[in-house]
Design the sequence.
């Protein structure tokens, strides 16, 4: 997916460039990409600390409270294990991204899945729109830097993708960064300046949540840099697809372990 930059008037100002499987930015020298012919944009250079923060909004992977759409065929315990694996892969990608601060906005209690180097803040609000809005606000008020927020359902996220979301905010070439999810939602929202009114009231968990959230940003006149569309894990079909493209990940290993008894039963019946 080509990552275009939009203004509130839908005037296209450029393109970030598609990020491939390895997270490499788009073609150097392409007009509007911000990538000079000699190489990558300054914010993507290894070792540069981005003056931004990444917030992972997450739920404690407790059986019966997470990944309920995976049950059946999985048990609540198995679904929770898959959620924990997805969260661990996500946190590993965030930990490998050179940003000033890493935060988990958590519903529940921290567990062994939480690595060092993360601040933990509690979620507040009723609906998901409120929880997202106040997680952004609470991170920004304690550290006045741009904020990139992601969930725990995209274990395929990479440090390169996260840097691509934070970089334009730091360099002030965008006011927001945004990643659509395949199911119509969104997997990433980054803001240079946080205003809860940009999120509050947007209907969440709907087939058109992503377009409506994007429209809210555009209507506010923000320059929005789009990130590639990703599949988030809600269903077994999506879990299989994400596991297939993330070999070697905790999530893929967990899926293989969960699938093994079913595969053995099928083989025995043949």
Sequence:
């Amino acid at each position: 997916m080509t990552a275009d930059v939009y203004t509130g008037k839908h005037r296209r100002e450029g393109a970030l460039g598609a990020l491939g499987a390895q997270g490499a930015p788009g073609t150097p020298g392409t007009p509007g990409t911000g990538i000079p012919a000699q190489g990558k944009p300054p914010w993507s250079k290894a070792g540069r600390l981005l003056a931004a923060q990444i917030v992972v909004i997450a739920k404690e992977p407790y059986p019966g409270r997470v990944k309920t759409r995976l049950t059946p065929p999985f048990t609540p315990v198995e679904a929770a294990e898959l959620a924990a694996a997805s969260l661990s892969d996500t946190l590993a990608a965030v930990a490998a991204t050179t940003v000033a601060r890493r935060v988990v906005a958590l519903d529940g209690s921290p567990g062994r899945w939480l690595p060092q180097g993360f601040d933990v803040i509690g979620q507040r609000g009723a609906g998901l729109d409120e929880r997202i809005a106040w997680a952004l606000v609470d991170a920004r008020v304690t550290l006045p830097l741009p904020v990139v927020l992601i969930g725990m359902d995209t274990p395929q996220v990479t440090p390169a993708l996260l840097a691509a979301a934070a970089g334009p905010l730091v360099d002030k070439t965008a006011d927001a960064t945004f990643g659509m999810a395949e199911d119509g939602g969104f997997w990433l929202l980054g803001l240079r300046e946080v205003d809860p009114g940009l999120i509050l009231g947007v209907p969440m968990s709907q087939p058109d949540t992503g377009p409506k959230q994007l429209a809210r940003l555009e209507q506010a006149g923000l320059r929005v840099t789009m990130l590639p569309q990703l599949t988030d894990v809600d269903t077994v079909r999506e879990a299989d697809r994400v596991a297939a493209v993330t070999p070697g990940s905790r999530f893929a290993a967990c899926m293989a372990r969960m699938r093994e008894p079913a595969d053995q039963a099928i083989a025995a019946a043949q």
User: Anything to note?
Assistant: Helices lie at 76-95, 128-142, 159-170, 209-219, 236-244, 250-269. Strands lie at 4-6, 14-15, 50-59, 99-107, 119-122, 147-150, 176-181, 186-191, 224-230. The two ends are 41 Å apart (CA to CA).
